[in-house]
Amino acid sequence: MPIEKENSMANVELAEQYWQKLVSVYEDGSIKSSTAKYPNEDHHEGIEKHSQDLLTHNLARNLTHNKADILTAFSRSAFLAEHLIQYPHTLERVLTLPPSDNPSSNSSSNPNDTVDKASQGSALHHYRAEVSKRLEGVKTEDELLSALRECRNTEMARITYADVLNKQVILTSLAQVSALADTLIVAAYNWLYKDAAARYGTPISSHNADHKSEQCPAHMYILGMGKLGGRELNFSSDIDLIFAYPEKGETQGGRKSIENQQFFTKLAQKLIQSLNKITTDGQVYRVDMRLRPFGDSGPLVMHFAAMEDYYQDQGRHWERFAMVKARIINDDNSDNAQALKDILKPFTFRRYLDFTTLDALRNMKKLIATEIRRRKLSNNIKLGAGGIREVEFFAQSFQLIHGGREPSLQSKSLLTTLTALSDMDIVEQDVTQELSESYLFLRKVEHTLQQCRDRQTQTLPDSDWEQEALIAVTGFETYERFLDTLSATMKTIHGHFNELVEESHETHSDEDVLFSACQDAWQLTLKSDEFIDAFSDHLSSREAMGIFNTLIEFKDTQRNYRIGQRGEDTLTKLLPEILYVLVVQHPTNSVQVLSRLLGVIEAITGRTTYLDLLLENPDVLKQLVKLCERSGWVAQEIKRFPLLLDELLTPLYLGQQNTDIATSKREYEQDLRQSMLRIEQDDVELLMDAWRQFKLCQQLRIAASDISDSLPIANVSDKLTVLAEVILENIVSAAWMQMSERYGTPSHLEGTDKGFGVVGYGKLGGYELGYGSDLDLVFLHNAPSGITTNGKKQIEAQQFYIKLAQRIMHLLNTKTLFGQLYETDLRLRPSGNAGLLCCHVNGFEKYQNEEAWTWEHQALVRARAICGDSSVIEAFNAVRKRVLTKQREPSSLADDVCKMRIKMREHLLSKTEQKVDLKQCVGGITDIEFMTQYWVLANSHNIESMTQFTDNLRILENAVKNEIIEANTAKGLQKAYLKLREQYHHLTLADSKFADQTEELDEIRENVRKHWEALFGASCNS
């Protein structure tokens, strides 16, 4: 009942008129308690009259006590006033703050904070209890519709009262509105399901029951889309729903069975009617079903198989965009609910980006801009330039691009997604902070606009009283100041929106002389002097001439490829971009970098998808140029395996790798497990490809961090080492499964035991793996003699373990399309190449005690159990300790170490006058390793703790701690060792074997040589 001429009336006057109407209702004594409507209650007339008088008295007292707040609220919301006038008995409830963990807070310390699960759960629990109580005794659909609307209107009035008086933050309000919607939808569904089942019987599914075959009642799952799915529903929103049920079948237990499809269609129709129908009490929600498969022409509800077929075969880009927010409203945590999620997840979040996604996002962005211009949406805070929709598009675009590979970007919540984007360094933190704050401001404005009349509007008001209400709630002195802030906010959002998925050429203006020169350089046939002149302001004549010759050579090569018109068009756009980035970033080293870059381009010329990736993503192109400039090895790796270009899409993977070794291993385990989920364990070819792809991608991430100097050398080796460990553990498990399926398992084993272990020697054992390092491995088992396997085809346990080792070697060494996983070396096993491929732990100890040479004990210093049964690992550790702690005569030991070092240098040192072999040279890496091994072998019989570590740095620390060497000696050797290893890593990255002779390197080597001669004497270097 709106007040006449309200547009010309001051808010205070309007509120006073509403107040008088409300007071008159109380004075009439016509207030009816909502409990009087319950059909199952039969109050005695006298008791009812007494209760009614008491209710009227309490409400009148509440009215008087809260007059100031009520008048203020009425001046800001006609909906609230009209609700209380029509339903005065709800006054006490409306004045009570809605459920929240922080109801009194009116500001958020962090605008990025989303309502946590506890708060969301609090609201859900509260509303479920209230709605359940209200629906008790409801017998008919008419009663259901009335009860749902009364609950909705009362709770929304209650939220409005808290909001317009700023008694709660907008995040809390969004959570309450969403939780109320969830509750009302599910309550309506549950009531209607029972009613339909009583009439038609219960639909049956064999999909559930924890994968067992017995049949169970089937349910219709309700997907909430958009803001409902994200738990960010606006105040007067309609709701977008999609319905699905598990499988075809028939109902059971009814008067007449009907098909599940028919049952759920009837149920869906009833559910929509219960929410959407307008009665004297209004409607619960406007229901929109157009997002379902096939839209308005499709069935109202589909079974899972049909839905999966649709999204696999016909799902469109905008549907992927919509599915980012899809959430099962009535999620019962059953296998059926999980099955539905498993159908939608791979459609929505693709592990490897389909680059048509970028085109689709760009097209959607253009459509948004076109709609803004066409509809002149300048006053619309949702659809206008810089409106709510643009923030949502910003977040969801990154979710589609990166969400398949990063689970934290699969959130339904916009604010959670923005936080994840900044945490992962995909988007700068100040950008996500600005967007979050701007989004919350717009959502508060939107709520306030809609709470004025409970109408779905995002358009700024024309009427004075609505403008006054808006600035009063949002805290501005004048409407003009509000508009200024709103304009600045939306301008900020629009700026970030415009930077999304832009085409590369959009970043260059017509006045960009350099880019024009780059276009001419590739697209025109220039003479050498014309080419040099075009770049004269940016490149030396020598660099320009080098680029000129490199491009001519590349063009000649390209004539041999047939890449189609699309590929040619993409290449025509891409090459100027490459030249532009190259000249800007590396004007003094452009020829070498261009040669490496064109090697990559040549490798992907036939794959337009990768050309598109570089053209559509300027940041990816810049990252590629940077990596190629710093590392010839990385350039070669990307050239050999173009799938690595996908890694450049996510800066997180390339920048922040500096985690401790335990965290790194845990992350690798999780990532590898995720990668292997959809691969059948008996598909050996796919398994081998997956391991190799995983290693290549992770190795590139480490190298990129190494190149950018964000990762210390020790951490580089740590990460490369634990990466190998994780892959090796996975391969051992796969090999075990393959062998046990064929032969069974050795009969002495119990439970999940394998009786098997893998020992890593050398760089693997010492946590010092480099790029391209091989793995020195020894395989051990603990099977007693005479034991056989228990499979159909029985073999001796010793033979089984040898076959297991062979299988592991095959999985590691085989060269596939993605190369070799690791080159392995088993020559450090007992008796070397003449020994068994896998030996018993006891045999290993016997060999070490009776036959091993000193150099083999040196190698044992760096040996470490990598994976296997705890019993085998413990046995190996005990053997290693016993062997290393044997007493040795120092001079004899020193003599053996020296002889082995001289022999190694004679056989392995590469002779060159201009270059240095960092590993084998005098004062090089191996000299330091031999010194640490000597100190362990010479002193462990007295100091057992010297056997504790396998890496050189901690052995040196231990030697100082046990007063074997001076602190200055250890510090000098550690510094030298780290520097030499760092140079060695960078030589690998530069695709080079030898280092240049420099004063710094000479000084390092001389320092190491002095320590060596102090320990072994000068003759040991000859």
Give the helix/strand class: mainly alpha
Show unreliable segments: 1-8, 34-51, 102-118, 208-213
Query: What is the terminal separation in angstroms?
Result: 106 Å
- The total of helices stands at 41
Radius of gyration, in angstroms, nearest whole number? 37 Å
What is the percent of helical residues? Answer: 55-70%
**Residue fraction in strands:** 5-15%
How many distinct beta strands? 15
- How would you state the average pLDDT, rounded? 85
* Shape call: globular
Task: Write structural notes for this entry.
This protein is mainly α and 1022 residues long. Helix content is 59%, strand content 5%. Strands 3, 4, 6, 7 and 8 form a five-stranded mixed β-sheet that branches. Strands 9, 10, 11, 12 and 13 form a five-stranded mixed β-sheet that branches. It has a three-stranded antiparallel β-sheet with strand order 2-1-5. Strand 10 (775-781), helix 33 (797-813) and strand 11 (824-825) form a beta-alpha-beta unit.
